Amino acid sequence: MLTDSPGTLLAEGRRRLSEAPFEPSTREAALLLGRVLELSEAQVMARSAEPVPAELAVRYRALLERRLTGEPIAYILGEREFYGRPFRVDSRVLIPRPETEHLIEAALELSLPERPAILEIGAGSGCLAVTLALEIARSTVVATDMVPGALAVAAANVHAHSVEHRVRLVAADLAGALELTAFDLVISNPPYIDPSESAQLSIEVTDFEPAQALFAPDQGTAILERLTSELSGLRPGTPILLEIGYDQEDRITQLADKANLTLQEVRKDLAGHPRVALLFSR
Ligand SMILES: C[S@@+](CC[C@H](N)C(=O)[O-])C[C@H]1O[C@@H](n2cnc3c(N)ncnc32)[C@H](O)[C@@H]1O
After folding, report:
1. Which letter, b or e, does each residue of 5-43 get, where b requires 16 or more Cβ atoms within 10 Å of its Cβ?
2. 3-class SS of residue 83
3. Looking at residue 100, what DSSP letter applies?
């Protein structure tokens, strides 16, 4: 029997990934093989002719099979980078998206008190809460989620980034019983996808990511509506940063009016879609 090498295993993986209907990157073959061999992508390439022990080839093929079912590579590897830092992820949380980094950029441009108290609603992996704690040196962050599994993943990330002393995780429906007047900034990437659009999404999203992190009734705006209504209880002048869907600029304008919030601007993401709403309480 021929012994497998990284070169033959990569060629096999790339071929099979290129045939998958959901268009994974063929580069993922090297990431999966690197995980099994405990090597970086570059090291895998550099050792392409060395023999690979049979049991490791079996493990690699098992990971490849998982990927070919549509399971996102971030869940298989258990990690995704956000704002330059690694975050643990599994099927209990949304995989952090690059466009969500715009929320962090917008937060860093605000003029905040020296020790700002930040509230995040819908923590998921904790990528926003942890990043804010690390980027804003003297901030404290309270982050809520109503899904216990998501809070467990967020807690692992809070611990991995050593910010336990500045990030508190709270099980709550939106802001729950928290005293809103205590906060200097509220940030949220709530579920905002219209459930009727699920047929257009990749199976990587619909079959694997948690529905409660993605979808909201009323064309995706039900949670945004509840959230904006609750946030009218902030101290006047408190900034609010919300991620919104590509087609929700008009809706967030209406919701801001209804909740007596001032919508200052809606920023676009790199694809040119409206994505980050900056509002202020009145
Ligand atoms: C789009 S994900 C965002 C996760 C993470 N903040 C990020 O940006 O990657 C939305 C999160 O909100 C949580 N969520 C949904 N409805 C909620 C509610 N009513 N109260 C609190 N959290 C909620 C979900 O469990 C999910 O973790």
Report:
1. bbeebbebbbebbeeeeeebeeebbbbbbbbbbebeeee
2. coil
3. G
Helix (H, G, I), strand (E, B) or coil at 245: coil
Predicted confidence band of residue 43 (pLDDT cuts 50, 70, 90): very high
Q: Does residue 2 register a pLDDT over 70?
A: no
Ligand 1: lining residues by beta carbon, under 6 Å: 93-94, 96, 100, 121-125, 127-128, 144-147, 150, 173-174, 189-191, 212-213, 223
Q: From the CB of residue 80, how many other CB atoms can be counted at a distance below 10 Å?
A: 20
* The two structure tokens encoding residue 268: 């676009």
Q: Which SS3 state, helix, strand or coil, does residue 182 take?
A: helix
C-alpha radius of gyration, the chain, whole number: 21
- CA-nearest of 55, 54, 26, 52 to 39 is 52
In the chain, the domains with their CATH numbers are 6-69 (1.10.8), 93-281 (3.40.50.150)
Give the Å distance between the CA of 50 and the centre of ligand 1.
45
Tell me, in angstroms, the distance from the centre of ligand 1 to residue 22's CA: 25
**Token pair for residue 81?**
């980078």
What are 238-274's pLDDT values in tens digits?
A: 999 999 999 999 999 999 999 999 999 999 999 999 9
Pocket test of ligand 1: the residue of 145, 188, 194, 230 to mutate, having most ligand atoms within 8 Å of its CB, is 145
Q: Which helix (H) or strand (E) holds 18?
A: helix 6-18
